[in-house]
Amino acid sequence: MGASQSRSELVDEKVFRVEQPIQFSPDVVDQLSDHTASSKPSPERQSTLDEHVRSRIQNEVKQLRKEEEEVQKAIQAALEKENLDREKAMAGDAVESGEAGAGTVKSSAALFGDLEEIRSKIERFQSRKDLSNYPEIKSSQAALLSCYKAHPTTVLDCWREVSKFKASVAQLEQESFKTFQ
């Protein structure tokens, strides 16, 4: 029933033939061929893809930095524990064997005490460097400076003042060296 009606419509089909060929401009042909041959996405799509890739890279870098920081903290804690254990063991060995003097391993507290002793010696030495306690050096220094100012072009004329200043400084150094030890 329905088949006969469908067939009759197919027979009434009309085909038109063009006597002149259809021509397209070269720009249209190039654009169509480029568009079909091109596997590149559109500029808007490319910028979206680029932004997505950048954000994923930044997230990955943040995650890696966080992991690196955690690993560094763990390594540092392990090294501190290992060094502390080694220091305790070596200090215990030195105490048990009764060693004293050079070559022994000291604990942090002993090293801190030695450091404080050295600091006090340095402070005493620095206090001795103050020239107000040594008038002979101050006077020879003042004489030397005034000679240099008086003879700016012929400074070799100040050789006596230079030798007096050197002698007073050498004498002070000898005294300081004896008292420092």
Question: What structural keywords apply?
Answer:
mainly alpha; MICOS complex subunit mic19; DUF1690; 6 helices; 181 residues
Notes on the protein architecture:
The protein has 181 residues and is mostly helical. It has helices at residues 2-11, 26-37, 43-97, 108-128, 135-150, 159-180. The protein is 75% helix and 0% strand. The mean pLDDT is 80. The longest helix has 55 residues, at 43-97. Helix 5 packs antiparallel against helix 6. This is MICOS complex subunit mic19. Keywords: Coiled coil. Residues 34-46 have a biased composition (Polar residues). It comes from Marasmiellus scandens.
Question: Level of helix content?
Answer: over 70%
The count of helical stretches stands at 6
Number of DSSP strand runs: 0
Unreliable segments of 5+ consecutive residues:
none
Order of helices and strands: HHHHHH
Q: What profile does the largest beta sheet have?
A: none
Shape: elongated
- N- and C-termini, Cα separation: 130 Å
Average pLDDT value? Answer: 80
β-strand amount: under 5%
The radius of gyration computed from the alpha-carbon positions, rounded to a whole number of angstroms, is 48 Å
Helix and strand content put the structural class at mainly alpha
Protein name: MICOS complex subunit mic19
Organism: Marasmiellus scandens
Keywords: Coiled coil
InterPro entries: DUF1690
